[in-house]
Amino acid sequence: MAGLTSSTIGRKYAMALSAMFLLIFLVMHLSVNLLSVFGEDAYNNASQFMGYNPLIQFVMQPVLIFAVVFHFVMGFVLEIKNQNARPVKYDSNNPSHNSTWMSRNMIISGAVILAFVFLHLYDFWLHEMNYKYIDGLPIEETRFWGDLHAKFADLWRVVLYIISFVLLGLHLAHGFQSSFQSIGARHPKYTPVIKAFGKWYSILIPAGFIYIAIYHFVTQL
Fold it and tell me: Where is it localised (predicted)?
């Protein structure tokens, strides 16, 4: 790992790999949470499996936490190094003509998303850790849907989730393609397919999470 992150190219490659891991996780996370829209039992069963499976809890969960922390830290490191490498901004440079706003401000969207991740962990992960390992409460198979549903009773939380997922979509719109480019996946035949898939991914994944938040809010009115 030290060798992989000792150079700029290595850091970009490592960041791209962590991004791809998180892209897969988002699909899995959305799939499980969408079950809450279709039925309480389906979501409760899936959540119980995810929450009490030793492989997921003690292997995959630490790997996921590491990937999240690594991806954001590496993003900040790369941004700082890029800023230091370009201490002088030429007057003739017009970045709006050469790149999108999001590609120039990935660090901003990343920081907001990271703050949202902490809120999300506070809402759900910390609650689970307290329930299982601090209070040591017994398994209650029907509690998961109710816990999720109750979190979206407040409008301010729903609005915050929507804003965060819109920013996630903008972040993904650039980051999806960028992660493939960083590992050298550039080809006249495949790059347009990657771009198109990345565009739909950056729309559908955040839209799915937004729908879940709105659904649980509206069904409580």
Answer: Membrane
Taking all residues of the chain, what is their mean pLDDT, rounded to a whole number? 85
CB 73 within 8 A of CB 11: no
Give the number of C-alpha atoms closer than 13 A to the C-alpha of residue 39, restricted to the C-beta side: 4
- Lowest mean pLDDT segment, chosen from 4-8, 28-32, 34-38, 189-193: 4-8
> Which of the two residues, 89 and 160, has the higher pLDDT score?
160
Residues 32-42: what's their mean pLDDT? Answer: 95
Single-letter amino acid code for the residue at 106: M
How many other CB atoms are there within 10 angstroms of residue 9's CB atom? Answer: 10
Query: In 10 A of CB 155, how many CB atoms?
Result: 9
Which of 200, 96, 213 is CA-nearest to residue 164?
A: 213
Q: Can you tell me the distance from the alpha carbon of 176 to that of 75, in angstroms, rounded to the nearest whole number?
A: 14
Q: Which of 173, 157, 172, 174 is nearest to 210 (CA)?
A: 157
What share of the chain in percent tops pLDDT 90?
Answer: 46
Give Cβ neighbours of residue 9 (< 8 Å, ≥ 6 apart): none
Residue that has been written with the tokens 């849907």 in this structure: 145
The CA–CA distances, whole Å, from 12 to 9, 15, 77, 180, 186 equal 5, 5, 10, 11, 15
Determine contact, residues 201/172, Cβ cutoff 8 Å. yes
